[in-house]
Amino acid sequence: MTAALAIQDYALMEDADCEARIEAAREKLGERLVILGHHYQRDEVFRHADLTGDSLKLSREAAQSKAEYIVFCGVHFMAEVADILSRPEQISILPDLAAGCSMADMANLPKVEQCWNELSRVIDVENQVTPVTYINSAADLKSFCGRHGGIVCTSSNAARILEWSFGQREKVLFFPDQHLGRNTGYEMGIPLDEMVVWQAGKPLGGLTAEQIRKARIILWEGFCSVHQMFRPEHIDRFLERYPETKVISHPECSFEVCRKSHYLGSTETILKTVRAAEPGTRWLVGTELNLVNRLRQEMKPKGVEVHFMSPMVCMCSTMFRTDPQHLAWVLENLAEGQVVNRIQVPEKEAGEARLALDRMLAQG
Ligand code: CIZ
Ligand code: SF4
Questions:
Q1: Which residues, judged by CB distance below 6 Å to any ligand atom, belong to the binding site of ligand 1?
Q2: What is the pLDDT of residue 1?
Q3: Are 141 and 133 in contact (CB under 8 A)?
Q4: CA 152/CA 216 separation, integer angstroms
Q5: Is residue 351 part of a domain?
Q6: Is the per-residue pLDDT at 2 higher than 70?
Q7: Which residue has the higher pLDDT, 166 or 3?
Q8: Domain range for residue 41?
Q9: The domain spanning residue 292 has which CATH number?
Q10: Quick check: is 360 in a domain?
Q11: What domain count does the chain have?
């Protein structure tokens, strides 16, 4: 075997050079390779994707594909899910290992275990609480949910998964995104004072025993910094100018933004809703900029106006790390028979995480 090609040799390469190398490597690898592109990826990478979608759709499709190599242009937890759901002989690769998700990093296993133990001083956690992790979380948190009768959710199925969870036990511990948990709970009719925020590091999460006993959902304190850039005043200002506008936001946005939106939805739902819009309609969209820019271009010829909710440019900086240079580097290595940046979840952890993912997939 030859030595792996070094990323340093790609760092200064022109995008156009990388593009040609990506195409050539793809040609060579043929059906042994599938490239997945998340909706938040930049255009220079997104255009090379064989399959595009949200994290769940992509992992499902990858697992069904024949490809030996799954190159996930997304963030770390997505490549982990692809590894967990794919067959043992398939290899999941993340072009830049630094492409994490800052929200996923806001919860970790020691802190969640500490929360679970502290809750058990007040309530019977194992019999009263279903742990639910948003798919944006590390694999060991998915395995925590697997071990404790819990489940995974995505922004597409959060309400259905919460229904299932309440069918198991009376309370939910929801991590890491407080906004998805709160917005979904509220839409299901749970009052705000029955959804409390657990502040890791404070005794009893900064809550009283009474608050914990009364709570239906205990929310982790995490958030997505990209989606916090959208503010209710952005919606107000836009509606003053164009009152007929339909507002659609991702449920990772704040409660106030979601309350002012006409529709809430995951990336897949946002795309589906706007693509089905009548010509002559105008949409204000609260999610990551790359997705919104592509949707704007796509809908313009159809007479549908798409606007980005924030006056500031807000992209997901970790998604942005995957560039043509890293993609060319991993693909040229694969074409030479070298696997770089493999994401492999340890077997025991993967088995328990799969339990939680399978419970979710069984909900349709
Ligand atoms: O699950 C995903 O892909 C994410 C991060 C967002 C969404 O709404 O699709
Ligand atoms: Fe994570 Fe937010 Fe980036 Fe999505 S947009 S990957 S939640 S940091």
A1: 38, 54-56, 135-136, 154-155, 250, 266-268
A2: 54
A3: yes
A4: 18
A5: no
A6: no
A7: 166
A8: 7-100+318-346
A9: 3.40.50.10800
A10: no
A11: 3
